[in-house]
Every structure is written in structure tokens, then in C-alpha cells.
Amino acid sequence: MEGIEIKNLVKKFRKDIVLDDISFNIEPEKIYGLLGRNGAGKSTLMNIIADRKFSNHGSVTLDGITIHDNDEQLSRIYLTSEVDVYPDRFKIKDLFSWIADIYKEFDYDLCKKLSSEFKLNEDSKFGNLSTGYNSIVKAIVALCVPADYIFLDEPILGLDAKNRDVFYNALIQTYSDRPRTFVISTHIIEEIANIISDVIVIKDSKVLINDSTENILKSSYEVTGPAAEVDRYTEDLNIIGSESLGKIKSNYIFGDLNDKPIPDTVTISNIDLQKLFVNLTDRE
Ligand SMILES: Nc1ncnc2c1ncn2[C@@H]1O[C@H](COP(=O)(O)OP(=O)(O)OP(=O)(O)O)[C@@H](O)[C@H]1O
């Protein structure tokens, strides 16, 4: 199989099972949103895929070959670090040249271009960067390394609205210039909904969803109307949440609608990814 294949992965911290026998694939040339509540296991999963943390069981392969202790396969995977791996005293411009020396095909031109778009002061020392600029430096590096599978762990943490826009545009541009896979974990779902081609949702230590954004949105509905009629229409459906305002009720559905005739008083509309996520991950 082409791409990253995660098979029967188990990760425990002492007795806590963070990832419970999960299996799924990450395909070439797609932009994934990796979603999950705080503590769901997104960072842990990305660190295992990048071979920085070990699993208790299971395997991760890239194009059918194990990534574990395999430098050749690992050179095709890049994960932005949540811990600060760069020396504090490094000036940003020296940091960029240093990284360009390590990665022979590092896109130095793009790096310089992004640095200017983000108005990054390359004379600053890494250790003195603000939270936002710390994220920006890591994101710039991630967009310029020559890897085929790039994992960005909360890349927009601390970025202001303008710089989040710069980041999204840079991502779209570099992807269209050189399609490769990006896996982005974030809590700001409404902003990436239009960028990601696919969505992975982790809940209760399992992969709840791994599907195209298009398919997911096509199967997500809000059914609104008088409570009794809404409940009657949706009784056989996969209700993931509901809201009421007086006698009017909305039931949120994920999955197929039934063939029953839709009552005149009931309206059905699609819901956005953010609303779907909140309802799906809110349930016990
Ligand atoms: N080194 C560790 N030792 C013990 N428990 C850990 C360790 N690392 C992570 N955990 C636990 O594993 C779970 C998953 O953590 P992880 O950081 O992967 O979640 P996340 O989905 O990235 O969360 P967030 O969105 O809050 O960043 C959490 O309950 C966390 O406390």
C-alpha cells in the first residue's frame, strides 16, 4: 500500500490506554485535519508515527516498509516539535541556514519569502521569540523541508488572525506547487475546514472517523422543527446531539437519512465541521 499504514497501534502510559488498537491509513498528497478533544492522543499519535515515541503494540509502515529505526523512511516524514529543539542562542537566520545544510533540498527561497510575509525578524534569537513567532518559525521550517509526510502539531498556536491567514495561504500555495501530505492538528476547526481534504477524528482512544471532508459534510445534518415531529422523523437515525429553543428542536444527525417522507414543518440542512465535531465528541 502507498502511504502510511497504522496497524493495531496501542499506546499506554502506565495503566492509561491513550490509543487502543487503532488502524488507519494516511494517503499521499492529501491535507488532513487531525481532530480530537484536549488529551485525546493527537500528539502521541504523531510522535509514534515519527518514531519519537514508542508504541506498546502495533506497527507503522510507509509504502509497506517499517518506519521504526529506519532512517530512510523517517527522512520522508517530518514532525514539528512541541518541545523547543533549537538552541535558544541561535539567531533565526543562522537557524534557517543550519537547517538548510541538514536538509539538502530545503526550500530556502520559500523560507525567506515566508519569513518576510510573516514579518519575522531573523536577527532575533530563537529563545527570545514570542509564542506566536515560535510557532511561525516551526511552521516555516515544516513548509520548506523536503519530506513527503509533514505533521504539524497545532501550527497556529498563538498566531494572530492575520498570521493565521498567512499560514493557510502559504500551505495552500506550497501544496499546489508540490503536492504532499500534511497532517494538521488544531482546535480551530472552522478555519481549516475549507483547506483540509480529509478528516481524522480521535475519540475514546479510537479513530472515530477517517474520511474525506466532502463525504463527512454530506452525511451531517440538522433536522429542525416542532420537537415531536423532529423526534418522530429522526427516531431511527444516528442522532449525535440536539438543541431546543422553546418548542422548536434541532436534532443533529451523522449518517444516512431515512426514506420516510419529511413532514412539511421540518427542515433539513447540512451542518459545518465545527458543529459536527462538537456534537460527535461531546457524547459520552
Ligand atoms: N509522557 C507522558 N506520560 C504520561 N502521560 C502522558 C504522557 N504524554 C501524554 N500523556 C497523556 O496521554 C494523553 C494524550 O496526550 P496527547 O498530548 O497526545 O493529547 P492531545 O490530543 O495532543 O491533546 P491537546 O489537544 O490537549 O494537545 C493525555 O491524557 C496525556 O496526559
Structure, briefly:
This protein is an alpha/beta fold. It has helices at residues 42-49, 71-74, 92-102, 108-117, 131-144, 161-177, 189-192, 213-218, 227-234, 273-282; strands at 4-13, 16-26, 31-35, 57-62, 65-66, 77-79, 149-153, 181-185, 198-203, 206-212, 220-226, 239-245, 248-254, 267-270.
Polypeptide structure, described:
GO terms for molecular function: ATP binding. This protein has 284 residues and is of the alpha/beta class. Helices cover 32% and strands 30% of the residues. The chain has helices at residues 42-49, 71-74, 92-102, 108-117, 131-144, 161-177, 189-192, 213-218, 227-234, 273-282, and strands at residues 4-13, 16-26, 31-35, 57-62, 65-66, 77-79, 149-153, 181-185, 198-203, 206-212, 220-226, 239-245, 248-254, 267-270. The strands form 3 sheets. The protein has a 6-stranded mixed sheet with strand order 6-7-8-3-9-10, with helices on both faces. A 4-stranded antiparallel sheet has the order 2-1-4-5, covered by helices on one side. Helix 4 (108-117) runs antiparallel to helix 5 (131-144). The two termini are 35 Å apart. The model has no long low-confidence stretch (mean pLDDT 94). Adenosine-5'-triphosphate binds next to helix 1. Adenosine-5'-triphosphate is lined by residues 13, 18, 36, 38-44.
